[in-house]
Design a protein that fits this description.
Blueprint lengths: L6 H13 L3 H6 L1 E8 L9 E3 L1 H8 L2 H4 E13 L5 E12 L5 E13 L2 E8 L2 H7 L3 H8 L4
Parallel strand pairs: 1-6
Antiparallel strand pairs: 1-2, 3-4, 4-5, 5-6
Helix pairs in contact: 5-6
Length: 146
């Protein structure tokens, strides 16, 4: 299989690797200096710098969330040919609780030389905490002084 270079192809490949639980392959699609941002994050890092930082951030992902599909998935081009917006819903289960995991995402990705250089991920920390059985922990975290 050839290496994808167009931004839409790169995000398609990235989500396919996540679905296959091939974290090493997904990490390989990130630029060494990638910047990952999660503007709505609560209780998890809002920013991760670099491929190695992302390797650590995603290390136990398959042990936390078992994604079984992306029933809603669309990629939109932008005025910047290097940037796409992906809208998708991930379905599966939260491993620790067995609870269903249904999470809508919007991701804004910029691709450079066939690698994801910037990934802004918009998701609901409330839905994630609820599926993980950690809603009370999230509420407590929100009440802490920043």
């Amino acid at each position: 299989m050839s290496t994808p270079t167009a931004p839409a192809d790169v995000i398609d490949r990235f989500t396919a690797l996540l679905l296959a639980k091939d974290m090493a392959g997904a990490i390989d699609l990130l630029a060494p200096d990638v910047v990952f941002e999660a503007p709505f994050a609560a209780g998890t890092p809002a920013r991760v710098d670099g491929r190695e930082g992302m390797r650590e951030y995603l290390a136990d992902y398959p042990d936390r969330v078992d994604i079984t599909g992306f029933p809603a998935y669309a990629v939109h081009r932008t005025a910047d040919p290097a940037t796409v917006i992906a809208e998708f819903t991930a379905e599966g289960r939260t491993v620790r609780t067995g609870e269903p995991y249904v999470m809508p995402y919007i991701a804004v990705l910029t691709v450079r030389d066939g690698l994801i250089a910037h990934y802004r991920d918009y998701w609901s920390p409330v839905l994630a905490a609820k599926a993980a059985g950690e809603l009370a922990v999230l509420v407590e975290h929100l009440g802490e002084d920043s």
